[in-house]
């Protein structure tokens, strides 16, 4: 008769122990893999956030002061200028050394940029009058009362405030093909009978700063016409240095803080010598559940291209 034998108790305990050790090891590998994936994903998001933030800043900084035509170079009579003053299209405030009165700001420096919104150009449908323009309608971004606009051509440029439009609802009213814009300036029409080269643009005035978004997270914000818009989440600090051209050779000689630009006898003239800005962003991981990631600091230099290409 054959005798049947199974595993002994000791053998079962050894097998169970080995199995448990293998399961624990596989679990640890899975947890480590998930943590590594989450970290990699968070770092990739930070990198993408930094890229997008610099993309937005670069477009504005490069076009600071761009009018679409004749360049304005007259300086304001007082300092600091209005944030819509295209004669001083780039200026900033330093977090540690300037008094910054900007609602919603959390921390960091502030950067003001003014330029023409050349994505939305309007052309004349008829020669302009001293205080009015007849424009060909566009499907959107038509003039509205109290907005600041710029009338420009290769030989003339002036900014003005829109007093009223006809139709009052803009080009979206009915089947209007032209729109009459009334300005607050009797000198804004400097084109004579020319209807080919003049263009009218909305004037963009952007203020960049670090604030908080709707989720109460730190974010790079931009203010336009009193409305704050989130550029990118996770930016917890903004620091800017300004590249000054001291000898008018179209190259940067030194980088200084905003208060060092403004502290001179003629700050408007000094700001006109800024040819580049050096931006440093501090990005804080907003989805770091483990709390193991440090802030990331990203820096880059942006040229004020509109000044560099001027004769």
TrEMBL record:
Keywords: Membrane, Transmembrane, Transmembrane helix. Pfam families: N_methyl (PF07963), PilW (PF16074). The chain crosses the membrane at residues 12-31. It comes from the Bacteria. The keyword Hydrolase does not apply. The keyword Cell wall biogenesis/degradation does not apply. InterPro entries: N_methyl_site (IPR012902), PilW (IPR032092). This is Type IV pilus assembly protein PilW.
């Amino acid at each position: 008769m054959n005798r049947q034998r199974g595993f002994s108790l000791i053998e079962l305990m050894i097998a169970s122990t080995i199995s448990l050790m293998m399961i624990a090891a596989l679990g640890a590998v899975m947890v480590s893999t998930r943590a590594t994936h989450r970290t990699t994903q968070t770092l990739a998001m930070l990198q993408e956030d930094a890229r997008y933030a610099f993309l937005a800043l670069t477009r504005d900084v490069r076009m600071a002061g761009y009018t679409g035509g004749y360049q304005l170079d007259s300086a304001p009579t007082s300092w600091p200028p209005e944030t819509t003053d295209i004669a001083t299209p780039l200026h900033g405030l330093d977090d540690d050394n300037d008094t910054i009165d900007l609602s919603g700001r959390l921390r960091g420096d502030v950067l003001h940029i003014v330029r023409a919104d050349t994505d939305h150009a309007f052309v004349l449908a008829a020669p302009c009058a001293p205080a009015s323009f007849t424009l060909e309608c566009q499907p959107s971004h038509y003039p509205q009362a109290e907005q600041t606009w710029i009338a420009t051509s290769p030989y003339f440029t002036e900014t003005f405030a829109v007093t009223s439009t006809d139709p009052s609802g803009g080009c979206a009213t009915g089947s209007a093909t032209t729109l009459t814009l009334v300005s607050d300036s009797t000198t804004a029409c400097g084109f004579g009978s020319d209807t080919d080269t003049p263009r009218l643009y909305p004037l963009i005035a952007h203020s960049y700063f670090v604030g908080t978004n709707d989720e109460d997270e730190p974010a790079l914000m931009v203010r336009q016409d009193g409305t704050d818009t989130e550029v990118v989440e996770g930016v917890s600090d903004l620091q800017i240095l300004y590249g000054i051209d001291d000898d008018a050779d179209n190259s940067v000689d030194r980088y200084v803080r905003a208060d060092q630009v403004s502290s001179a006898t003629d700050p408007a003239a000094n700001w006109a010598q800024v040819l580049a800005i050096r931006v440093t962003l501090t990005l804080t991981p907003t989805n770091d559940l483990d709390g193991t990631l440090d802030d990331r600091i990203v820096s880059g230099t942006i040229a004020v291209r509109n000044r560099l290409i001027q004769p």
